[in-house]
Amino acid sequence: MTLPPVPAARARELIGRFAGLQVLVVGDVMLDRFVVGRVTRISPEAPVPIVRFESEYVRLGGAANVATNVLALGGRATLAGLVGEDAAGTRLREQLRKAGASADGLVVAPDRPTTEKVRVVTERNQQVARIDYEHDGDADEAVTVQLIARLREHGSGAKAFVISDYLKGAISKPVVESVIALGGGSAPVIVDPKIPHLSCYAGATLITPNHHEAEAATHRRIRSEEDAREAANDFRARAGCQAVLITRGEHGMWLSDSTVEGSIPAVAREVSDVTGAGDTVVAVLALALGAGATLAEAAVLANQAAGVVVGKFGPATVSTEELLRELTG
Questions:
Q1: How large is the average pLDDT for residues 172-186?
Q2: Of the residues 32, 165, 192, 279, which is catalytic?
Q3: The pTM is what?
Q4: Which numeric CATH code is attached to 8-30+61-114+135-328?
């Protein structure tokens, strides 16, 4: 079964409700730094390209990219997560302020670096190398207690919650339980998961594994829509969540809950970079569900938004104007 498109009038109504809608995003925040240069020759020291520096810029990544996607669509975002006591943490806060996101939920973990990914790319956006600064062990108990306190302090007015898990230490079972308790069964909790934490997500409204994560969690190969249907149902049972949306790249998405299931065809366009597309998906899902959309409507909107951002380079966002243009022509 293919889920129907959202009628243009309904799409406008839902997207119009995004304005000012409060979303709390908790997870692994990152800073993406891009060092751009020109490759003209191969090094005589090793068979690697020499990149002549031309420019450098930064973007917010991970859970921070989810927050910027919420803002780009007119919502309000509070970000909760961990940063180090370092220059990257300071720079990340500055970028959040420029974007208009609240950084009040961030906790400084002095024994950890701020997660930073440095990509060396050519002027044609071809990636040459990536350097990761990170500590991916679980946060210690004292830091986790501080993070939960920030969640309770800033999450009471949220209309939707996003858990953005990149296995960098911020997300744990106590953190997830605190977020679900804040949702109280009335505000949706959307999880962008990592499979080692699958048992932590019980009680979530919607979990969004990609194709490979769904296969790993269910020990099933997904080669067809029927495979996707069976894997989604199995995933939902294993995770103990209300609904599952499997993102399948060029094959679109598959949505499954107790009342609706079906496929959503991928948006046909040239793909530039899939980095951050999952962040856009969960941001749109949170805003749409918080605005009163059904699960099927929210999934269709998220699919269209993903089709926009994969045409952009690096962690990117989609605006309400771009999304409406995609949905209404």
A1: 95
A2: 279
A3: 0.93
A4: 3.40.1190.20
Nearest Cα neighbor of 164 from 299, 63, 29 is 63
| Token pair in block for residue 222 | 């997904």
Nearest CA to 176 among 203, 213, 206, 145? 203
Distance CA 206, CA 240 (A): 10
Q: Tens of pLDDT along 93-128?
A: 999 999 998 889 999 999 999 999 999 999 888 899
CB count within 10 Å of CB 270 equals 6
Q: Which of 148, 192, 183, 180 is nearest to 290 (CA)?
A: 183
Q: Which two tokens stand for residue 212?
A: 């490979």
pLDDT-derived band at 65, boundaries 50, 70, 90: very high
Cα torsion through 150, 156, 157, 163, rounded to 10? 60
Looking at residue 278, its pLDDT comes to 86
In sequence order, which residues have a C-beta less than 8 Å from that of residue 137 and are 6 or more positions away? 169
Contact 327, 284 (CB under 8 A): no
- Burial-class residue 269 by CB neighbours within 10 Å (0-12, 13-18, 19+): exposed
Q: What is the pLDDT of residue 125?
A: 82
| Interval 132-169: pLDDT, tens | 999 999 999 999 999 999 999 999 889 999 999 999 99
For the cut 60, the answer to whether the pLDDT of residue 273 exceeds it is no
Could you confirm whether 279 is annotated as catalytic? yes
